[in-house]
Specification:
globular, mainly beta, three-stranded antiparallel beta sheet, 1 helix, 66 residues, 3 strands, 6% helix, WYL_dom, WYL domain-containing protein
C-alpha cells in the first residue's frame, strides 16, 4: 500500500495532477490523478498548499502511474 500526503493539486491541460509526499520513497512525487486506480479515504486531515509553494519542484518532476 502506497501512502501519499497530498500537498498540491493542479491542472496542466488536459490532465489533473497531485503533487504529494511519498512516504515509501521519502520524497515529493507527481501523480496523474486519472491514473490512480485504488484509493482509500483516511480520517487524517491535510491542508493543500498553494501551487507556488511547490512549482519549482514540480517543474523537475516526472508524473508516475499508480
Amino acid at each position: 500500500m502506497m501512502r501519499e500526503k497530498p500537498r498540491c493539486i493542479y491542472f496542466n491541460y488536459p490532465v489533473w495532477y497531485m503533487f504529494a509526499w511519498d512516504h515509501l520513497r521519502a520524497g515529493f512525487r507527481t501523480f496523474r490523478i486519472d491514473r490512480i486506480v485504488d484509493a482509500c479515504l483516511v480520517e487524517q486531515p491535510f491542508k493543500v498548499k498553494a501551487f507556488e509553494a511547490f512549482s519549482h519542484l514540480i517543474e523537475t518532476d516526472t508524473p508516475i502511474t499508480l
